[in-house]
Amino acid sequence: MTKNIFKPNKEFAKNARIKNMCEYQELQDAAMEDYEGFWGGFAKEKLDWIKPFDNVLNESNFPFVKWFEGGKLNVSAQCIDRHLNSRKNKAAIIFEGDRGDKQIITYLELYYNVNKLANLLKNEFGVKKGERVVIYMPMIPEAAYAMLACARIGAIHSIVFGGFSAEALRDRIVDAEAKVVITADGAYRKDKPYMLKPVVDQALEEKTTVEKVLIVERNNEDITWVAGRDYSYNELIKNQDVTCEPEVMDAEDPLFLLYTSGSTGKPKGVQHNSAGYILWAQMTMEWVFDVKENDTYWCTADVGWITGHTYIVYGPLAMGATTVMFEGVPTYPDAGRPWKMVEEYKINQFYTAPTAIRVLHKTGEDEPSKYDLSSLKVLGTVGEPIDPPAWKWYYEEVGGSRCAIVDTYWQTETGGHIVSPLPGATPIKPGCATMPLPGIMGEILDENGNKAEVGEKGLMCVTRPWPSMIRGVWGDEDRFIKSYFGDVKKDGKPVYFTGDGAIYDEDGYITITGRTDDVINVSGHRMGTAEVEAAIKKHPNVAEVAVVGKPHDIKGEGIFAYIVLKEDNGIADEVEEVKAINNVIKKEIGNIALCDDVVFVPGLPKTRSGKIMRRILRSIAKGEEITQDTSTLEDPSIVATIATAVQSCR
Ligand code: 6R9
């Protein structure tokens, strides 16, 4: 492992914000010596306060912590207004549509577009500070306007990824008690229109708290309009005033909710608040991607996920950068599309997920060599561990063995990166997220709260609250405490546990080993096994189901379902039955949760107390030999029966 180490590019390091490991260590030491001084200093330097804060950190009601109490600011003003003096004609967003249509939106234009939408929401729809707005949008600039317009008037946005089904959208609307939904008729994918508005119609079929739906007309396909509820963005926006005073917000006023899967129950609304979130979004943009004034930065995520929130919209705009937004898919019209865009826009930082790298590698190995990629300086990955072949190709063929790869480890709940290399400082190792960022007290602990030994798998924790830490689970204080602060204690005090396992190597580097709970990571997206199981159980023929993750070449992990059918409904046709099961999933969650494998079994391996032993099911799915102790099972013979059923499906 130690041999496989890549030092930062010396030329790059000269001008980097953090130039070497000494500088990294100095920052980390400063944070350890005076935690509040460290964060307070950056909060003063990086944010424009309407009223300065009185107090850096209040932990008296831990884990309900407060950062920068007394401070007033507005996040949309951080992202737009404060750049108008020096950057009004700079590109804020460069948009490329699926079909190759382009738009460049300057900071001044962004200011007008956001203000107009903010006025529309406030004056026409009556949206007030603290009310929730659900955004169900394709990757078009209006999605960013919608986020920033909510921030401007103090409304809390909750983006639902466009791939979620009507049921999933409805659940999120109901949980957040949203007043407004902002959507689009649809958009384009692989040169064809696809639709979103009909999904919203279906989600709102039964009564909810939603009063108004605002529709951006993007692909101009036919949609139905519900009188008194549905309004055209394109029409209403024309009459709006171009200025809108930003609402004065407390540092701890909520900025947004983003629903994410946990190990149990339904998805939880992760809440992020204003000042701490935007501070760390900006700082990590500066440190981890080292974006400079004239750089062009591209993150390929979707705004429906946290990566899109922090690293397409909030982080880049907070620092006054140029951020690229892309509607299409990276392999269309061919697997050279991203590299063509890198050449055309002279992209300097490129940030994507290992699953995309694997697809691009597999389907277009030689594509990077056809384009001029010399503008690239930093390459990023996020969402799941990156495997060595994908890393090597990314490093050599895309980055020309000259660019640092920042393997950024973080979560919806952490708001921004927590463990990551710094491109000008950290010697990198393939597949390794390396070290906690300055200010983040990230530690691998064992179950007793002691620091894990080198080479010993432990729990990835953060031992002190940091500014962009999750502030709550919407409407469920108990779940917030139990989900994140219930498992690990250090020196008797609960600490934030990520749910991931991790290992230190001999250099003190951190490698993330994946979730320790029942969450699977499909193409970098989090899926709770409980959620998928609940969906499958809605099929009338299903008696019992257990879902586990199984390694998958492209997706990282695939979904493997073991299903016990109801006896009196014996299967006539297994292929049809699998289709029917996947249709239920499509309806309840969306295509992202479709099963890769479905195996019908006569029973599940349960302990005498009725608990399903998933470890065994995971081993069988992988085709591993069963080494676990099966003596506590109610019926140990079921293991061999299931293994045979899986074998016969292969
Ligand atoms: C940002 C994001 C979070 C989960 C996380 C972990 C996995 C993210 C990773 C990584 C290994 C990395 N994860 N980054 N695993 N190396 N660099 O993905 O947020 O959707 O909430 O997922 O993704 O398991 O717990 P989210």
From TrEMBL:
Domain spans labelled Acetyl-coenzyme A synthetase N-terminal: 24-79
Which molecular function GO terms apply here?
A: acetate-CoA ligase activity; AMP binding; ATP binding; metal ion binding
* Residue ranges annotated for the AMP-dependent synthetase/ligase domain, each copy included: 81-473
PTM N6-acetyllysine: at which residues? 611
Residue ranges spanning the membrane: these are none
User: Out of the domains of life, which is the source?
Assistant: Bacteria
Q: In what residue span(s) does the AMP-binding enzyme C-terminal domain sit?
A: 531-611
Which GO biological process categories is it annotated with?
acetyl-CoA biosynthetic process from acetate
Tell me its cofactors: Mg(2+)
Determine if Metal-binding is one of this entry's keywords.
Answer: yes
Q: Which residues form the signal peptide?
A: none
Q: Any idea which positions bind CoA?
A: 189-192, 307, 523
User: Pfam families recorded for this chain?
Assistant: ACAS_N (PF16177), AMP-binding (PF00501), AMP-binding_C (PF13193)
Q: Where does ATP bind?
A: 383-385, 500, 515, 526
Write out the function statement from the record: Catalyzes the conversion of acetate into acetyl-CoA (AcCoA), an essential intermediate at the junction of anabolic and catabolic pathways. AcsA undergoes a two-step reaction. In the first half reaction, AcsA combines acetate with ATP to form acetyl-adenylate (AcAMP) intermediate. In the second half reaction, it can then transfer the acetyl group from AcAMP to the sulfhydryl group of CoA, forming the product AcCoA.
The record ties this protein, via PANTHER family, to: ACETYL-COENZYME A SYNTHETASE, ACETYL-COENZYME A SYNTHETASE 1
Record's family? Belongs to the ATP-dependent AMP-binding enzyme family.
Protein's name according to its UniProt entry: Acetyl-coenzyme A synthetase
- Kindly list the organism's lineage: Bacteria, Pseudomonadati, Campylobacterota, Epsilonproteobacteria, Campylobacterales
